[in-house]
Specification:
With 400 residues, the protein is α+β, with helices and mostly antiparallel strands. Helices cover 30% and strands 25% of the residues. It has four domains: 43 residues; 135 residues, no CATH class; 123 residues, no CATH class; 71 residues, no CATH class. It contains nine helices and 22 strands. The strands form five sheets. The chain has an eight-stranded mixed β-sheet with strand order 4-3-5-6-7-8-12-13, with helices on both faces. Strands 9, 10, 11, 14 and 22 form a five-stranded antiparallel β-sheet that branches. A hairpin with a 5-residue loop joins strand 1 and strand 2. The longest helix has 18 residues.
Length: 400
């Protein structure tokens, strides 16, 4: 009996008798065939083969179980779990310590050998290692209990894989001999993933301040130079870097630079189906990394948004509302210096929605959108409004 790899990447029994089998290399055991299939796909795609392999379903089931026990429901966390389970199994780590929403550590096994050997020790070691790493980078950790939400380990291995759940930290890390050796960002690219969010300071006219521009990379500052916050009111404003080639290369460069600043040394991504996991080494020459991203059909854009972050209105926001924007918002077409106004005085097409509340351009009013037509004559104090900040962000996705 011989085994070969079928068109779906699965090891199956070869039934060819009279004629030679067209499927190439054959093996004496199913185990040998499976090992060959996974190594072939690993070399071609990164870490793992496609969903047709039954081991992929097993990994997805473990990832789903881990997510449910953790109680974490943040967007994309399911893909982070799937990527981490995949990597853990590649590393030979078959036990998982999961900290649930109540702070209790739940242990499960992904291997045949059940039980855990003092999982609390692995969680503590992981937390201490990550805390030391981020402190060296000058990153403040407000709640260190979130650093090691999920820990993958094996008592016979000195390596530990960790999934974090706290702010200001990346998705996963590999710790070896209590030292962080790899910091990993995980993204789902099939439908796009948001790039880091950076707030930009603007003057009272809405222009990005020189101090803020000086803090950006040269190519980003040049693209931002003549843009105002009102240009991004209600739209996703894509930065133009001056040429088709630059518009391809610079957003990918920005992505790599920003995550390297955060300490990332690896980038793992999966597409919408969650079947194929790819890993990219970010420690190489940055031009090499950008080229690999392009070769893998990954594209990015850098965008300005004025609808992601909001704060209490300040003097600059009030000046811009009165002197710059009121001519556009108000039916009178004139500047407005009054302390309050009514929705009846606003152009109807300028009244939009931000969450549950009324929005006028970059400003959120203390009136629920569903009731605004019943409040057209209600006076609204300008100091009671909220103002959107100008944010630099972007999107990275697989190009189809």
């Amino acid at each position: 009996m011989k085994y070969h790899i079928n068109s779906k990447g699965e090891p199956t029994i070869c039934k060819a008798t009279k004629q030679s089998c067209p499927l190439g290399k054959h093996f004496d055991t199913e185990k040998e065939a499976l090992f060959f299939a996974e190594k072939s796909l690993e070399n071609e795609f990164g870490l793992l083969p496609s969903n047709e392999n039954p081991r992929i379903k097993e990994r997805k089931d473990f990832a789903d179980l881990i997510q449910r026990i953790s109680g974490i429901k943040s967007n994309g966390f399911d893909y982070e779990c799937f990527a981490s389970v995949s990597l853990a199994q590649e590393m030979g780590l078959d036990k998982v310590a999961i900290t649930d929403r109540n702070g209790l550590i739940i242990n499960i096994s992904m291997g045949k050998k059940k039980g855990a050997i003092d999982a609390d020790v692995y969680v503590k070691r992981s937390t201490e290692g990550l805390k030391a790493y981020y402190e060296k980078m000058g990153i403040s950790i407000k709640d260190e209990t979130l650093l090691s939400r999920i820990v993958y380990y094996n008592e016979d291995s000195e390596s530990i894989l960790v999934q974090s759940g706290g702010p200001n930290v990346l998705d996963a890390a590999i710790i070896k001999a209590d030292e962080v050796v790899d910091i990993i960002e995980v993204k789902r690219l099939g439908s796009g993933a948001q790039l880091p969010l950076i707030s930009l300071d603007v003057d009272k006219e809405g222009r990005i301040t020189e101090e803020t521009l000086s803090q950006q990379s040269t190519y980003i500052a040049k693209a931002l130079k003549d843009i105002k916050i009102q240009d991004a009111d209600g739209i996703n404003l894509k930065l133009d870097f001056g040429s088709e080639e630059n518009n391809i290369n610079y957003p990918l460069l920005y992505f790599v630079e920003e995550y390297k600043k955060k300490g990332a040394t690896s980038f793992i991504y999966t597409t919408n189906d969650g079947d194929t996991i790819n890993k990219i080494d970010l420690t190489r020459n940055i031009d090499e990394v950008v080229k690999e991203l392009k070769d893998k059909n990954i594209e990015a854009s850098v965008n300005l948004r004025a609808n992601l972050q909001q704060q209490n209105i300040d003097k600059k926001d009030l000046y811009r509302f009165n002197k710059v924007l009121s001519k556009e918002y108000f039916k009178s077409g004139k500047s407005s210096n009054s302390e309050s106004f009514t929705l009846k005085s606003i152009k109807e097409e300028k009244i939009t929605k931000a969450g549950d509340f009324v929005r006028i351009g970059g400003y959120v009013l203390p009136i629920e959108y569903k009731d605004y037509k019943n409040n057209l004559n209600k006076r609204i104090r300008k100091t009671d409004m909220k103002a959107f900040r100008l944010s630099l962000t972007g999107n990275i996705k697989t190009h189809y």
